[in-house]
Write a structure and sequence with these properties.
The protein contains 14 helices and 13 strands. It is of the alpha/beta class. Strands 7-8-9-4-3-10-11-13-12 form a nine-stranded mixed β-sheet, with helices on both faces. Helix 9 links the parallel strand 3 (179-183) and strand 4. Helix 13 packs across helix 14. The longest helix has 21 residues, at 18-38. The radius of gyration is 23 Å and the shape is globular.
Length: 458
């Protein structure tokens, strides 16, 4: 019977040559919808037009496929997007089905009801965003839903990191067989993609903020501690110390930030309000990785603001000079000062606490790099001098090392100040052609520039 059905389908396809095209189109729509959902693209910005919706939900079977590409995707079991985001997606799906006067299958209603009965964990402050690579491999990162949290921009993945990761995928030879150091790595998207796509000799993730480094370490464990083929296997439970750290981070995030409307502005969107995406200048008194546990820090979101303000807690900053990495020692090998950790599953990978302003007294003094990477680290004029001095230190003459810095150009004055500072330190720069393929779904309205920086002999 099955053979007869298949035969009839093949005959129908031969009679109607457009049938196979329509099927291919539906597969593309499902893949596009699924990748956007896993990245938590704002529902209002999804590439999901009404005519495409009609093609996707024409039958109960197709509606089930939409569910299994999104909220019932196997990835969501281990690495779920925010509950409020999933719930809003289902609400919008049902509304679209009702507008199309489609017969809604029971599984759609059951899935939505199940989401409504789930309890949001600590105000949904931490969730997973999953990025899909060209070969179908996935990178899942645990992030904050807020643009600025705990006095740092590092708890969310920014557009320039996605842009630089796309460029790396297209140019693996730049990093292959090289020692890589990433500055202000945040939650690790660029580095994880580099380690997956390139045969690096070593990769050192560096940042300053304690909570960023903790989540970074967990993201590295998730994505680089096992073969990609086992990425959906049941993860081992976090130890008691990890659980306490997660509770602390979530508690602090819920205290310092208002609940984000994830239907509109999850962390990957980075829009402050209507029309503000193109005019934002991130203004901070801390370097991009500096800690700030001030419980009164204000979040971005007011429509009259054109910059993000990050206040500084001097007491916390002073304590940060003696910071120690909070990592699972069963998975990481710590150095004597507990400021550098090597991944036991892959000794090429390490995490390092780095203060740009005090590299002579931090692990940064011993960093060796063939290639230096950085994404969205040029956003505040006050940190440019220390960043450029560090680049000058790492780009030692005679080593032929180079840096690639990706920046979202939100403010021309800040960009010009960075270029002037580079020249004053004897560093030359050129603009690198950006990636041609759009792998990830992020706002491309604001230009993103990748600079290649080298030491210029006098």
């Amino acid at each position: 019977m099955t053979g007869a059905i298949t035969c009839r389908q093949n005959m129908a396809a031969s009679i109607d040559p457009n049938m196979s095209c329509r099927r291919h189109h539906i597969e593309e729509l499902l893949e596009l919808l699924g990748t956007q959902f896993l990245e938590m693209v704002p529902i209002r910005k999804m590439k999901w037009k009404d005519e495409e919706t009609a093609a996707l939900v024409a039958t109960p079977q197709l509606q089930q496929r939409v569910l299994h590409a999104t909220v019932l995707n196997p990835v969501c079991r281990l690495h779920p997007p925010a509950l409020s985001y999933r719930t809003h997606f289902m609400k919008q799906l049902i509304q679209k089905l009702e507008q199309l006067d489609a017969e809604i299958c029971d599984e759609v209603y059951e899935t939505y009801t199940d989401l409504l009965t789930q309890r949001e964990d600590d105000d949904d402050t931490l969730c997973y965003k999953t990025y899909t690579l060209p070969d179908g491999d996935r990178v899942s990162l645990q992030e904050s839903v807020n643009l600025v949290s705990q006095g740092t921009t590092g708890l969310s993945t920014w557009q320039a990191a996605q842009h630089l990761a796309e460029w790396i995928v297209e140019n693996p030879g730049v990093l292959s067989d090289r020692n890589i150091v990433e500055l202000g790595c945040g939650l690790g998207l660029t580095g994880v993609v580099a380690c997956r796509a390139c045969s690096v000799k070593s990769y050192t993730f560096t940042d300053f903020h304690a909570q960023v480094l903790f989540l970074l370490a967990k993201n590295i464990e998730t994505n680089l501690s096992h073969p990609p083929s086992s990425s959906l296997q049941q993860a081992s439970p976090a130890d008691t110390r990890d659980k306490k750290m997660f509770r602390k981070i979530k508690r602090q995030l819920s205290l310092t930030t208002d609940k984000t409307d994830l239907s509109c502005t999850p962390s990957g969107d980075h829009s402050l309000g209507a029309g503000e995406d193109t005019g934002m200048e991130v203004q901070a008194v801390l370097s991009p990785d500096k800690p700030n546990n001030n419980m009164g820090v204000e979040e971005a979101g007011e429509e009259d603001e054109d910059e993000i303000s990050v206040s500084e807690d001097d007491e916390v900053r002073a304590a940060g000079n003696g910071a120690k990495l909070e990592v699972n020692e069963a998975r990481w090998e710590l150095d004597g000062k507990q400021q550098t950790a090597v991944l036991r599953a892959d000794p090429r990978v390490s995490v390092c606490w780095l203060d740009w302003e005090q590299t002579s007294t931090t692990p940064g003094s011993s960093l060796q790099a063939d290639v230096i990477l950085g994404a969205d680290v040029v956003y505040d004029p006050s940190i440019i001098p220390s960043l450029v001095r560090l680049l000058r230190k790492l780009l030692e003459p005679g080593k032929k090392s180079k840096a690639f810095i990706a920046s979202t150009v939100r403010n021309e004055d800040t960009r010009d100040a960075f270029l002037i500072a580079l020249s004053s330190e004897g560093l030359s720069y050129s603009v690198v052609e950006g990636p041609k393929q759009e792998l990830f779904h992020y706002d491309r309205m604001v230009p993103i520039e990748i600079l290649k920086i080298t030491f210029q002999p006098t």
